[in-house]
Amino acid sequence: MHAARLVAAHSALLALLVEQQGQQVESLDGITVVLSHQPEGESLDVIYTRNGAPVAGEGM
Q1: Per-residue CA distances from 1 to 11, 14, 16, 31, 36 (Å)
Q2: Which residue from 25, 15, 22 is spatially nearest to 46, judged by alpha carbons?
């Protein structure tokens, strides 16, 4: 089951990156995701990068 979850996460993150690339003037080349579990709740931050530098992001 672990491998299936990794494949699902990979597919979802790749879809986010490809979707965001269509909205950027220059191509993005990376995505960083931070998922945190805290007593007050969970958070998810997505950072899109170009040449290792953050250029866009979103979170929930």
Answers
A1: 15, 20, 23, 24, 22
A2: 15
Task: Give tens-digit pLDDT for 37-55.
Answer: 999 999 999 999 999 999 9
Show the tokens assigned to 35.
Answer: 């998922």
Q: Where are the alpha helices (DSSP H) in the chain?
A: 2-21
Contacts of 24 (CB under 8 A, 6+ apart): 48, 50, 55, 56
Identity of residue 15 = A
User: Which pTM value belongs to this model?
Assistant: 0.79
Residue 25 has pLDDT above 70, yes or no: no
Measure the CA–CA gap between 33 and 14, rounded to whole angstroms: 12
Q: Report which of 43, 47, 10 is spatially closest to residue 2, judged by C-alpha positions.
A: 10
